[in-house]
Amino acid sequence: MKVITVVGARPQFIKAAVVSEALKGVCEEKIVHTGQHYDANMSDVFFEELGIPKPAYNLGVGSGTHGHQTGEMLMKIEDVLLAEKPDVLLVYGDTNSTIAGALAASKLHIPVAHVEAGLRSYNMRMPEEQNRVLTDHISHWLFCPTQTAVDNLKKEGIVQGVQLTGDVMLDSVLHFLEVARRNPQKAAIFEALGIAPKQYRLATLHRAETTDGGLEAIVRIFRAFEQLPQRVVIPIHPRTRKLAEQAIAQEGFHNIQLIDPVGYLEMLLLTSNACQVLTDSGGLQKEAWFMEVPCITLRKETEWVETLDGNWNVLADLTTEDILQKALHTVPDPAARGKLPFGDGKASQKIAEALKRETE
User: Fold this and answer.
1) pTM for the full model?
2) What is a GO molecular function of this protein (predicted)?
3) Active site annotation includes 254
4) Which of 72, 162, 276, 353 has the fewest beta carbons closer than 10 A?
């Protein structure tokens, strides 16, 4: 069995690290990197520190409008598939790389395997929602992280090829958090940043819904951050850096510490040791949940509804008042966590076994 795996963004590199390891000995896998995340701090460092196999193809697509970026990916991935003739095309999540890979394979009648299938925010204005819905409807195998995801697919009439595997991100956190804790070079990040465990809040901002509001939107968010009693550390996404720097210069904020993007191991350490996470990221809100760190999600909805139980994850509007109110006064309930809804940490093995079983 030959598998072509398409990745292009930071969260996909993390998922591929554990799934590609599970696929060793099961199949011949070749990785295609679209170049959606092309900054070295958002791409190269993840392949190096997570031991992901070097991409067989790097398409170098880079940034652009959604249509331009997706269209260029579609053409270049099609060329790879025509040359390689794989048995399976494997995609992750909900990025433009995901939908481009799935469409290219589907039109060539190559079965698509979608890892992290069935997620829904029910906000079709989000590019991610459009990508995940369309990918699910043309996939042959749909590997779901939660029962909620399975139920979402059933509501849309998708039952064939659906499998509840658990979440590969849980596999990744369980493995790599211990790796990070044993690495003194990674643990040195606290001294380098001048912060102490549980004495800071960690934030990330990168989604289009956040940045499309321009400087005014970032200022509103930062005004809330400025009033929090702990310093707010932000590994700043390249998309957001210019706006963030302008906001700090204009308003004179001093409680906000912008840092360059960090590798996955350092991000795990920063997340697990924060007293709170504030983010518009789907992946980080879930990682915070795994590590029992309270999270404020800067969005009106989440595809990870399981994390909302017991106020471990709380949604906040992008207003100074609502962010500040939620960040200061939300208290999570330890008793609400209950049984892990994200599986047993062996999702990657289940995916590898399923692909082997169903393609033999």
Assistant:
1) 0.92
2) UDP-N-acetylglucosamine 2-epimerase activity
3) no
4) 353
